[in-house]
Each structure stands twice: as C-alpha cells, then as structure tokens.
Amino acid sequence: MGGRVTKKQFEEAAFDALFSTWDQDFVNSPEGAAAVDEVLYQRQQRAETYAVKWISRFLDLSRANVVEIGCGTGAASIPLARICRTLKGLDIDGHSIELARLRAAYHEVRDNVEFLAVAPEGLLDAALGCAQDVDVFVLYAVLEHLTPLERLQYLRAMWDRLPDGGAIVVIDTPNRLTWEDKHTAYIDFFHMLPDEYVCDYADRSPRPFFEKTMRSLDPTRFRELRYRWGLGASFHEFELALTERLDEVVVADGLEQEMVDMFPVGEDEVALRKYFLSRGIEQPIGFSRAVLNLIIQKTASPSQRQANTVYNARSRDQERNRHFPPGDSLGRVRRMFAAASETRQLRLQLEHARTLANERYSAIQEMDRMIRQRDAEIERLNATLRASTGTER
Q1: Average pLDDT, the chain
Q2: Rounded to two decimals, what is the model's pTM?
Q3: Strand 250-252 relative to strand 291-297: parallel, antiparallel, unpaired?
Q4: What digits encode the pLDDT tens for the residues 270-290?
Q5: In this structure, are residues 64 and 85 in contact, taking their beta carbons and an 8 Å threshold?
C-alpha cells in the first residue's frame, strides 16, 4: 500500500488481511467489535503509553538493533521502531505480519522496520540470524506460548547471541505461581488443572467459544496445544536457561510505576508477594508479579552487577515496607519472620561454606600425609640402594 494511508483504508485492509479469517459471528458481535478495536488501537496505545516508556528508561534504544520475536500485528513494534535504530519483527502468522506492515504504513514508520513471516520451526533461527548485530530481543506476550523446552532453548540462544550490554525484554507474560488465570480461561486456578479436567471445566469460562475451542484441540497434542494457547512462566525458566544470579542481571523488575499502571496489582499478586518476602525467596521481587515484565541485561562488569543487585534489594525492601509496615505491630512480627527466613538462608549458606572449608582442609591434610609418606618411601629406597652398592657410610 503506497502513499499515505487513511484510517478507513487501514481498517478495511486490516479486515481483509486478518479479521476476515476470524469467526464472522464473533466479529459481528459486541465482543468481536471490542476485540477488533483492541487489536487495531488499544494494544498499541498501551504499549506506547507504558511499556515502551518503561524500556527506554532503562535501555538506550537510539542506537539499538531490536528483534521482536512474535511481533503479532506490530502493536508494540511501531512505538519501539520510532525510538530505536532498526527493528525486525518476526511472527509465525502471515496474516498478522500483513497487518503489521499495514500498521507501519498507516503510522508512517517504514524506513527502519521490517516484518517477516517465518515457519514455526524456523522462528528461533530466523530471530538469531535476521540481523548482523542484535542489541535487544523483545518477547511481548510470547514466552507463555512456548513449550517448556522451547523456553529454555530461546532464552539460552538469545542470551548467547547478545553482546555485552545487550538485553532480553519480557513483557505481559502471566506468572504460573499466581492463582488467577488472567490469560486463557479467566477462571481462578484453571491453569493449574490437569489436562484431563480442562475440557469438562472449560464451559465455566466467560470467554465466547472457549469450551468449543478446547474440545477441538488434537488430543494427541493436547499438552503442547495448551501451551500454544498460553500457560504462565516463573523465575525457574530464567534461572535454568541463563545460569546467572538473576539479581545481578535483572535491571528492571516490573514494579516500576509504568508497569504497575499498565498491570495493576491484584489480590493474588499481593498474596504471592507476601509469600516471597516471608519465605525469603532469593529472586528479584518482580517474579512475584501476576504478570511478568522484566528487562534482563547481559554484563560482565562487576560494578554493574553490584548495582543491579542493589537495585533489586532496594525494590525488595520497598515491597517489604509496603506489605509489612514497620510501625504496625503485626507488620513487625511479619518482618521479624521475613528477616528470620533470610537469616536461615544466610545460615544455610554459611554452613555450606563451612562444610566446603572443612572438606578442603581435610583434603589438604590428606595430601600432606601422602607427601610425607612418599618422602619416607623415597628415603627408604635410597637407603636400600646405598646399602646394596656399598656406598653407605
């Protein structure tokens, strides 16, 4: 579509490119109209108002080459492309990529952005190889649609591909540790159900056609397809994939004001946050958010790692003061238990260090004993040799 694109042309082309592939009964319903508006306008407005401002506060994107994996219709891509050097958006759905290109034309963002439709099995390789230099990988509402093994593969490969100072940005991924399924079924605890219960329980979802969709899934691939629909993540993927102390590489934890405004704190998140704090969970406190929003930056600088550790400790302390106020008697008790939990963790670490030290001391003693035994054996052999040759005096 050449030249300037009007709003009417954008909406008509968007219908041809994407919405014509949707169930037309749904598209013509009030819920469908809201979904169309969400895809075309609301999602981009939220990304621009909150997420992109949040990213740019922690990363200098002016000279950054950004790769967005699973860019969808480009709702986040366009505001990102306005402030970065280059952006390449990849998605497995050709209709969404077509709409992303239309969106770029409508918003007159064309010179530094490129959208590519990629086969699912080639998505990771394409993301790693589509640009000579990659400074930032963005996963916006994507990680939850990957299988557990794919999550580890993607995170490891992206981390290895990044230069020092490069970053992985994760936005709008549900946390598997919270109780409410805000992503797929909109039912409390639904994401925790075993596969065998899903179809029979799906009729309780307020989502239109949800039960019908669940029952239509291939039973031989049911678990995989549940992930394709979306199942939450937690700190475990990141800890396993990156083999880093996350406190040292997380530079933004999603508790910054932009992301709290974008994803307000709910009851289940408060409960999980208090559990993290009272148990002394040794992870950035952002992993207690109901929706994970993280900027993870690769750095070899000890001073930067220390600064990140301090940032995460301060964020944890702020949340502890918020949920266990020092002036409140009950809060003091809770803070005492939280401190006791952290003390237990430190005591365990100290005990482990003491055990290692004792083991090393024992090993050194054993080596010393073996050396003295060897020296004595050498002296005995020398004495025997001198006696046999008549040289002993």
Answers
A1: 91
A2: 0.82
A3: antiparallel
A4: 999 999 999 999 999 999 999
A5: yes
